[in-house]
Design a protein that fits this description.
The complex is a heterodimer of chains A (about 550) and B (about 300).
Chain A lengths: L2 H18 L12 E5 L15 H10 L4 E3 L5 E3 L2 E7 L4 E6 L13 H12 L17 H16 L14 E5 L2 E5 L7 H4 L10 H7 L15 E7 L3 E6 L12 E5 L4 H9 L5 E2 L6 H7 L5 E14 L9 H10 L4 H6 L4 E2 L21 H10 L11 E6 L2 H18 L3 E6 L1 H10 L4 E7 L5 H5 L16 H12 L3 H18 L3 E13 L3 E2 L15 E2 L5 E2 L2 E2 L2
Parallel strand pairs in A: 1-10, 14-15, 14-16
Antiparallel strand pairs in A: 2-3, 4-5, 5-7, 6-7, 8-9, 9-10, 11-17, 12-16, 12-17, 13-17, 18-19, 20-21
Chain B lengths: L1 H28 L13 H10 L6 H13 L14 H36 L4 H15 L2 H15 L12 H30 L2 H8 L4 H29 L3 H7 L7 H7 L3 H29 L8
Helix pairs in contact in B: 1-12, 4-5, 4-7, 4-9, 5-7, 6-7, 6-10, 7-9, 8-9, 9-12, 11-12
The chains are: A alpha+beta (about 550), B mainly alpha (about 300).
């Protein structure tokens, strides 16, 4: 290659780069188009088998259920324009709107709910959330029956005897859906806003089988519809012109799947994303950006806690557990984690019924040392080895190291840290919970029940091995209580037992959502359940807008 | 040559079977399963999930089922990406990695080999020092640092290239350069070492003494004979590059298959782990066969008699 030709080629390449990349001339936004980052590929859009927030972020925008969560954590009418709670809370009758159409133009009926709920409870669907319907008459039995059917099918020659148990829900007519419960469950209404209980079209699912969620096949009833899905890269949603409440202002939502936070933030900075959240913000960026008018932060209904294995010494003694709870200064967590976490006192988060500041264990190192001495371990002497198992994630490492430091300093309690890969950690905690562990719990629905049921003796996620018949009885009473005030009092009593008297856990902090919104985006809501509803969002000229909210 | 290809195809079958069997066993030995999550599922739900994916059957039966499916070309289903088969996932992701990997490979060869040749021929000179500095830099600096630096310089400061994503040919430039960096550096070092061995050989001296130009000597006598070790490493290098890179795909948000080598293991997505491993094994076998064929073109002494 001659020198001249080489120089020409290099010059041409650099010129092309400069011309092509004239991003300064590029518009900052596309009117009516919202560009967001999902972070990862949604594992699936079938709302019976989806379990993660990425999938629910998409489903929440293409589907609506009987009711819908509002951003202030209430349950509002959605497909159901109203409902009656009958027989002391054991029977619900939902009256479904007559003007709701599926995206293919067919009307939504109560039969779409009946099919969907039956499918969710069918073992062959292999959903992870059928137990949310176990309060319904016959639901658990039906799920078990269908599981036996699956087993019988896989073993040639075996025959399943007996009829399927009758289910306690049915479409009374096209626009009336009736549900009978085994016992009154005040939180049940919240479950009707949860993605896995959304309606589904039998004809579509049966016609397309496993491929029914692909854009060319899926039929939905929400404000947006799925138009394009390039796996592992991008999804596009378009406004659903047939949506019963009118099409949303945003015409197209582009949902990218950028896993690396710094890349996603660079895209936001370059005006290639209009809205980003924790998935796109690395902790050092948050520290730098928190004074930007585009930044805001709000607590989520996701609590982190330290759990004791109450069957392993020294935590068999409630005094030792209480001493640990009193020896940790929780103000340390936001300082080391850097995402503006909120230190947690009680297990019930502040926004939910039953929350009481009185259920916060005070930070009191002298009191803690006194309690520890009473338990037979003066100045930490004689304590058996305490092992903390944790998954190898940066935020968890920082949390357990802070706890180790606090306990050493305030109680002279030596803690041995052991970290392991995530799935290995899960398997070990399930099989044999370590003496002390860090865990977290995110609300499935905005009711104290989702947090409080976790520590009942019969809950499969109660890794503390703590069981107290008194606690179980209070929770059972609260579940059936229809009077909201009395119910809140019951949950508060249980919270006191959990956080002050028995302390099988130490609530540590509430996780937060950190968001950045471009000035031209309006109507981004702050949802503590961490669900993103883009129905009321608009993208247009920036005018007096800060954090997506009109300042006037 | 035909018999060489036939032999390789026949040998590939037991090799793939061994790879599939070992991987199958290893993924089941590792603690933790595909449905372990933050929130424990009720035992009856876990039983339903295990039944759907045949994980409730004895391991030996699962193995037989798996090999039978494999024989039909069915790589199984993903436990993480519900409703998607491994074949679907790889069909979507492999072409992207192939595209990016091929560009990077060409880039690495076009930069690395001449750089190494220049260094070898001008041993101890300025060209050698500069080329070896560049190649040491390329080998020592990890991909994520190069990727982040390139994004910062060209995407954020100069704004001449896209920061990330996979939308147009321009979106390929930074990821291809990042991916090519380390192999180019490696090829440069290898070529230099090989050229140094050849440059003092008798036949090179003969070529020079009979008045052949420097250009002809280098291309026809030095470079051609130096390329055998380079071609040897090109086999595995091709397989590595065209099956994607976790780091590059992660940084630039590229929908390739490189990420599955890591995420499938983290998710205990058994069939996907097996699928990616087998695809890699197949490509490695193909690439190595191509290398053997190219040996025969480069060096007549290596021709196998049919």
């Amino acid at each position: 290659m001659s020198r001249h030709l080489f120089v020409t080629l290099v010059t041409a390449f650099m010129s092309a780069l400069l011309v092509s990349g004239c991003s300064s001339g590029k518009p900052k936004f596309e009117p009516g188009v919202l560009r967001v980052n999902l972070g990862t590929e949604p594992p699936g859009l079938d709302w019976h088998t989806a379990t993660d927030f990425t999938s629910f972020d998409v489903v929440s925008n293409v589907m609506i259920g009987l009711t819908a969560y509002t951003n202030d954590l209430k349950c509002a009418p959605s497909c159901a324009e109203s409902w009656d709670v009958l027989d002391g809370g054991k029977r619900y009758v939902f009256h479904i709107r007559k003007n709701i159409l599926w995206s293919d133009g067919k009307p939504l009926t109560a039969r779409d709910f009946e099919f969907a709920w039956r499918r969710l409870l069918t073992a062959a669907t292999a959903g992870q959330y059928p137990f949310f319907l176990y309060d319904i008459v016959g639901a658990k039995e039906f799920n078990a029956y269908t599981a036996d059917q699956v087993k019988a099918k896989s073993k040639p020659g075996s025959v399943l005897i007996g009829a399927a148990p009758e289910l306690g829900f049915k479409a009374v007519d096209d626009y009336t859906f009736e549900v009978k419960l085994n016992k009154p469950a005040a939180y049940f209404i919240y479950l009707t806003a949860f993605c896995p209980t959304f309606p589904m079209r039998q004809d579509v699912v049966e016609k397309w089988g496993d491929r029914w969620t692909e854009p060319e096949n899926i039929v939905t009833n929400g404000p947006y519809k799925l138009t394009h899905w390039q796996h592992e890269y991008k999804m596009e949603l378009a406004a659903n012109e047939k949506f019963y409440a009118g099409p949303p202002k945003v015409k197209t939502i582009k949902m990218f799947m950028v896993p690396e936070q710094s890349t996603a933030y660079a895209l936001y900075e370059n005006n290639e994303l209009d809205y980003i959240d924790n998935r796109s913000l690395a902790t050092p960026d948050i520290e730098r950006l928190k004074h930007s008018p585009e930044y805001s932060n709000f607590p989520l209904l996701r609590s982190n806690y330290l759990g004791f294995n109450c069957k392993k010494p020294p935590f068999t003694d409630a005094r030792v557990r209480r001493a640990v709870a009193m020896a940790i200064d929780k103000r340390i967590f936001p300082k080391i984690l850097g995402r503006n976490e909120r230190p947690a006192g009680s297990w019930i988060p502040e926004k939910l019924a039953g929350y009481s500041p009185a259920n916060t264990m005070p930070f009191d190192p002298p009191g803690a040392r006194k309690l520890l001495a009473e338990a037979g371990y003066p100045d930490g002497k004689g304590l058996p080895p305490i092992e903390v198992l944790y998954p190898n994630r940066d935020d968890v490492t920082l949390t357990v190291e802070a706890v180790q430091d606090e306990l050493k300093r305030n109680l002279n309690m030596p803690i041995h840290l052991e970290n392991t890969e995530w799935k290995v950690y899960l398997a070990r905690v399930k099989k044999d919970p370590p003496t002390l562990f860090r865990s977290n719990w995110g609300a499935d629905y905005p009711d104290p029940e989702t947090f409080m049921n976790l520590f009942t003796s019969y809950n499969g996620n109660n890794n503390t091995k703590w069981s107290d018949p008194k606690y179980d009885a209070i929770i059972a009473a609260a579940e059936g209580e229809q009077d909201p005030t009395k119910r809140a009092v019951l949950y508060s009593q249980a919270d006191h037992l959990l956080c002050i008297e028995q302390a099988p856990i130490v609530p540590a902090f509430m996780a937060t959502q950190n968001i950045m919104v471009k000035p031209w985006v309006k109507g981004i809501a702050k949802n503590p359940l961490d669900l993103q509803f883009f129905r009321d969002v608009s993208v247009g000229e920036p005018s007096n807008v800060i954090n997506g909210e009109d300042v006037h | 040559m035909l018999s060489l290809i036939c032999k390789r195809i026949l040998m590939a079958i037991p090799v793939l079977l061994i790879v599939a069997s070992i991987t199958f066993l290893l993924v089941r030995v590792v603690p933790g399963g595909p449905f372990d999550a933050d929130k424990n599922l009720p035992p009856e739900i876990v039983a339903n999930l295990n039944a759907k994916y045949h994980l409730d059957k004895p391991v030996a039966e699962q193995y037989v089922l798996y090999i039978a499916r494999l024989a039909r070309g069915d790589l199984g289903v993903s436990y993480k990406y519900v409703n998607r088969t491994v074949n679907d996932i790889l069909r979507d992701a492999f072409p992207v990695s192939l595209q990016l990997g091929s560009i990077s490979l060409i880039l690495a060869v076009l930069v690395g080999v001449p750089l190494g040749a220049v260094a070898g021929i001008s041993r101890g000179g300025k060209g050698d020092t500069l080329a070896m500095f560049l190649s040491t830099f390329g080998i020592s600096v990890p991909g994520f640092v190069i990727g982040a630096s390139l994004i910062f310089i060209f995407g954020i400061v100069l704004k001449v290239l896209p920061v990330a994503l996979w939308e147009s040919p321009w979106h390929m430039v930074l990821p291809a350069v990042t991916l090519a960096f380390s192999p180019a550096a490696y090829l440069a070092r290898l070529t230099r070492a090989s050229v140094l061995e050849i440059v003092d050989k008798d036949w090179v001296r003969t070529a020079r003494s009979k008045g052949l130009s420097q250009q002809n000597t280098v291309i026809k006598h030095i470079l051609r004979n130096s390329l055998v070790p380079v071609v040897t490493v090109l086999g595995p290098l091709t397989a590595i590059l065209i099956t994607g890179s976790f780091v590059v795909e992660y940084i630039y948000a590229i929908p390739g298959m490189g990420r599955f080598f890591i995420t499938a293991v983290n998710n205990r997505d058994y069939d996907l782990i097996l699928g990616t491993t087998l695809v890699f094994a197949v490509l490695l076998i193909i690439a190595n066969t191509m290398v053997d064929i190219s040996y025969q073109i480069l060096d007549p002494r290596m021709r196998v008699e049919d």
